[in-house]
Write a structure and sequence with these properties.
It contains 9 helices and 11 strands. It is of the alpha+beta class. Strand 9 (about 175), helix 7 (about 180-190) and strand 10 (about 195-200) form a beta-alpha-beta unit.
Length: about 240
């Protein structure tokens, strides 16, 4: 089967022929019909791959800490070999997809072959023809929902969870910082929940687009009148 993979060392993305994933207990095999590209998330991943080893280390201090701890316990040579082995691997792309169940693993009763499902998770809902997905990262798709739309389920769920955690109430003003795909979906959900929505982005065109797609007000982050306009819209302060 074919899969879209990234060379971790160089950041180069290419379509590869890879073996079929193994069907394991507690999961399902899904033939992908559509997978969503999250431009911001995947661009960051590619840009990180294109960096030098030093730049990679500076971008991910958390991983550097892990390497240091590993070296302390296992020696510098072992740590170096582990890092090099990691850099020589191919990494999967994508985390939100939809398709049709091909087979179910042991212990799975929620799904059966032929079910239409939306799938989630980095390392599972990949840009490849067939994915193995744990049953808790998949959900059935109603017949009335096209799989093309269902492929956005995970991204929509992330936006919904962020809004839920914020606990806005009806009539409040909500400020969404970042007007990419997740930001626009968050703005739409906030507006549907009865909130007044301001969207802000470093890219002025994204701010304008956010207003076209659901925000009541879209502002560029470098707008000199940003604070005044936010205060005026939200009726906050003098």
């Amino acid at each position: 089967m074919r899969a879209l993979l990234e060379d971790v060392k160089t950041g180069h993305i290419q379509c590869y022929e890879v073996p079929l994933p193994e069907l394991r207990p507690g999961g399902i095999l899904v033939r992908t019909h559509f997978s969503s590209i999250s431009a911001g998330t995947e661009r960051v991943k590619v840009e990180t791959g294109e960096k030098s080893l030093l730049q990679k280390a500076m971008a991910r201090p958390d991983l550097v800490k892990q390497v240091i701890e590993f070296a302390t316990q296992n020696g510098v040579k072992a740590a170096y070999d582990k890092v090099q082995a990691r850099l020589e691997t191919l990494s999967t792309m994508g985390y939100s997809a939809a398709g049709v169940v091909l087979a179910v693993g042991e212990g799975v009763t929620e799904f059966q072959p032929g079910d239409r499902v939306a799938c989630a998770g980095g390392g599972y809902a990949n840009h490849c023809e067939i994915n193995f997905v744990p049953k808790n990262l998949a959900v059935k798709v109603p017949d009335t929902v096209p799989l093309e739309a269902a492929a956005l389920t995970t991204i929509g769920a992330i936006a919904m969870q962020g809004l839920r955690q914020a606990q806005p109430t009806f009539g409040e003003t909500v400020l969404v910082v970042g007007a990419g795909l997740l930001g626009v979906l968050t703005a739409q959900m906030a507006r549907a929940a009865g909130c007044r929505v301001i969207a802000i982005d470093l890219d002025a065109s994204r701010a304008v687009r956010a207003q076209q797609y659901g925000a009541h007000l879209g502002l560029a982050a470098d707008d000199p009148a940003l604070e005044a306009r936010v205060r005026e819209f939200s009726h906050y302060g003098p």
